[in-house]
Amino acid sequence: MLRRLSDALQVAPYQPAEWMTALRMVAQATNSTHGEMVCWTKPKKTPLRLISNLSDEQAKLIQDWEIQVGADPSINPIVAAGISAPVLQTVTDDEVIRHDERSRHVVWNEYYHKLDIYHMCFSPLWRSSDSIVGLFLLRSFRDGAVSGDERRLFGSIASKWRDAALTAQSFKTDGARILAGALEGISIHAIILDGFGRCVHVSPVAESLLSGDDALTVRMDRLRRSDSSQAVADCQCAGRLIAIDADLQPCIDCVTRLVGPGGSDCRSCSIVVKGPSGISAQLRISSIPRDRHEISFGAAAIVVIDPPVVPSSIELLTDVASALTKAEREVALEMLDGRRPAEIAVRRSVSVETIRSQIKRIYAKLEVSGLVEFMAKAKR
To answer: Domain of life, per the record (predicted)?
Structure first.
């Protein structure tokens, strides 16, 4: 059994479905009902949770729990203990909460006991400033508490599991670097995000754009906007334009989360950020298809940065301007600056359909058949 488990861990970084195979084996080797690998991130999110041997009813209960509570350490003492415990330290439930407290605790009453989980053992495998990956044994009332021998066996398995997780991290980081380099080669300036929403690689030109921008920056591996900037997102989930009051992270998280139960079905998002100098940049965030068993280190989304647009001094010809309404003149100037309908829509806080209708009216009034004729006829 242990030899087959070791083989599965060697393959799992490259074939993510093998993580589930390994979880079933670790549960069997330690006489436990379930094996679990979980990723927690701030604030109170769980981008990955893999649990072996779950029934459909148990899986539904876990999904509901994630929506209601998530990884909130103020509610779940297991999360709090996992955050504070040293890497590879083995911790049991008896060390986290006393038996006489469990009957009064919402996590045990509304979650663990309904799942027939009465005992557990866990070890943090890897952590950063805002995320952690852990390995768990989950045991039913019938399994009983974790014995000393089972705890020692779990500790040795956790060490090998950590090595496999770090291999997965290295493999996925290298893949993100190669992807960003390939995009740079075709003049696409990109940032690669992992499943935690962190910037795992920034292409050289994208980095130079950020360094010279007064609206965007990367701080603590996160793409941020300055306090003095303004941002509007064309949100696929909301189905409308939304103003971003503070951080870009909610929009980024929406795209980087896995599609499926408890995940997002948002595949893309367009954000326009305008700095205090009036210069604006457009970010186009698109998700990258990936296996639902993957640890969230891998490339999960691409952020393409269009170079900042400097306010233009272009003017419309007098006879062209007089033929258009005020709104149409403003859209026409945006078109002369080279902006696409979607970007114009975000900048003007209207729908793309509205912009396209205005463009059709502009073409009709100027008696042109398309963008090339419009550019030739309209610009002074």
So the answer is: Bacteria
